[in-house]
Structure formats: structure tokens, C-alpha cells
Design a protein that fits this description.
With 171 residues, this protein is mainly beta. The chain has no helices and 21 strands. It starts with a strand and ends with a strand.
């Protein structure tokens, strides 16, 4: 069965090792405000055999800056992140598409990848809003990796007016 949750305010999944949204099919979480996921879980939002779609009219944060809590967003056939504002994937957090699923990000403003985006051979497509930036964290770990688990890497597309890549990207 699919899971669909929409709120007319902000949506927060933040109880440490508690709040989770998991299921076998598609999962869609939507917010007319901000959407924040930070619960230190390896399955913060996970669809085992479907696609995970997170959308917000405001900002979206995967992981949390002040507390240092992380989050993992996993889709069995893909992950779509659709913030109306900024998107931040915080240090220690993971966005992962299993199988050969793809990760698609359409940011309404800036996109910052300080954590990891990974696929097992699925494409990664990232678009920021007009006159905004795409930024990665500096470090030795590939922040975007389409060759996870030994898969053959495929295309990574990043479309932004300003790009600051200071970490490896592996296709």
C-alpha cells in the first residue's frame, strides 16, 4: 500500500530513533511549509519497493544542523526531492535510490549537499532555482555516487547558476 501524508503547515520527522515513515510501496510526504527529517535512523523515510517523494513549499532539510542529527531517505525505485525553497542534505545524512532507481532534485532555491547522494547505477539529476547555487561539502568521500555497491556509474546532471564543488563526484 502507498503512504501519502500532506500538511497545511510544516512537517517534522525528528524524534531521535523514533519517528519513521516506512512501507513497501510509494511514499509521498508533502508540506505547505518547511519539511525537516532528522531522527538518526537508517530508515528515516524508506520505501522498500517504490519511490519516495518529499515536497515542500518552503525549505527542506535532511539531517539537522544544530543538533547534528542525521537522516536517511531511501527509495526502492527512486527518490524525488522537491523543495520550494532551499534544500540542505546535512553531514552524515544519506539520500539513496536502491536497485537502478534515480535521484531527482528540483530545488526552488539553493541546493547544498553536505551528506551523500548515492545510487546503484541510477542517474542523479539536480536542478536549483534561478540565480541560486549548488554547493558540496569539502571532503574525501564522494558526495554524489552513481556507482555505489560496485554498480556501473551513470550520468550525473547538475544545473545551477553558481556551482561550488569541493568534494569528489563519482559517475
Amino acid at each position: 500500500k502507498d503512504i501519502s501524508i500532506n500538511t497545511s503547515g510544516s512537517l517534522l520527522i525528528g524524534e531521535a530513533n523514533g519517528d519513521r515513515v516506512t512501507g513497501p510501496a510509494d511514499i509521498s510526504l508533502g508540506s505547505s511549509g518547511d519539511l525537516n527529517v532528522f531522527n538518526n535512523s537508517l530508515n528515516s523515510v524508506r520505501s522498500h519497493f517504490g519511490t519516495v517523494t518529499l515536497s515542500s513549499s518552503g525549505n527542506m532539510e535532511i539531517g539537522e544542523f544544530f543538533s547534528g542529527q542525521t537522516a536517511t531517505i531511501r527509495g526502492g525505485t527512486g527518490v524525488n526531492l522537491l523543495p520550494g525553497g532551499n534544500l540542505a542534505i546535512r553531514i552524515g545524512s544519506v539520500v539513496q535510490a536502491d536497485g537502478t532507481g534515480e535521484v531527482f532534485i528540483m530545488g526552488g532555491a539553493a541546493v547544498g549537499v553536505l551528506g551523500v547522494i548515492q545510487t546503484n547505477g541510477g542517474a542523479v539529476n539536480i536542478f536549483t532555482g534561478p540565480n541560486t547555487s549548488f554547493v558540496t561539502n569539502s571532503g574525501a568521500v564522494a558526495v554524489i555516487n552513481t556507482a555505489f555497491n560496485g554498480a556501473t556509474g551513470v550520468d550525473i546532471t547538475i544545473n545551477a547558476d553558481n556551482i561550488d564543488i569541493t568534494s569528489p563526484i563519482n559517475a
